[in-house]
Amino acid sequence: MNDRHVALVRAFFDALSRGDLDAMAALYHPEVSFGDPIFQEVEGRDKVMAMWQLQLGGRGGLRAEFDDVTADDRSATARWRAHYTFTGTGREVDNPIESFFRFEDEQIIRHHDAFDFKHWSRSALGKPAGLILGWTPGFRKSIRDRARQALEEVAWQG
C-alpha cells in the first residue's frame, strides 16, 4: 500500500465533494487523460478540468462519497458514489462508480471512471425511458454527442 497515493486520491475526492476545481486541478498532471462511459476520452488538464467544471456546474449539488481506496507505487483504485440531480429530468441520481488512477511525478496522469450505463440511465431518466433506451447504442451515442458538444462550449477558467 502506498500511503502517499492513497492520500492523493482522498484529496481528489475531498476536493470533488467541495466542488473545489482549483484543488482538483492541482492534483492532475498537465498531461492527464480522463475516460468514462459518457465523455469517453478527454486529454490534457485544461480539457479535463473543463469537463469537471461542466459536471459540477450543470448538476444540482453533486455529492461524492468514496471508500475502498487502495494504491501501490504506480496506480490506485477507489469506489465512490455520485449523488446529484440530473438537470434533464430533475431526477435524483445515485451512481456507483469505480475509479482507476495512474500517477506520474506525484500527480494523477490517468483517471478512468467505470459505471453501468444502464443503471445510470434508469436513475437519470426513470422508467420506462431509462429501462428501454439505456442499453441501445443510438441512445448512448446521443448522450455522448451532447456531452461532447457541451464540453466544446466550456473553457476551464483555472
TrEMBL record:
* Pfam family, any one: SnoaL_2
List the molecular function annotations (GO) for this entry: isomerase activity
**Do the record's keywords include Isomerase?**
yes
Cross-referenced InterPro entries, in alphabetical order? NTF2-like_dom_sf, SnoaL-like
Ordered alphabetically, the record's keywords are: Isomerase
| Residue ranges of every copy of the SnoaL-like domain listed in the record | 9-111
Work out whether the entry's keyword set contains Repeat: no
Q: What is the superkingdom listed in this entry's lineage?
A: Bacteria
Name listed for the protein in its UniProt record: Ketosteroid isomerase-like protein
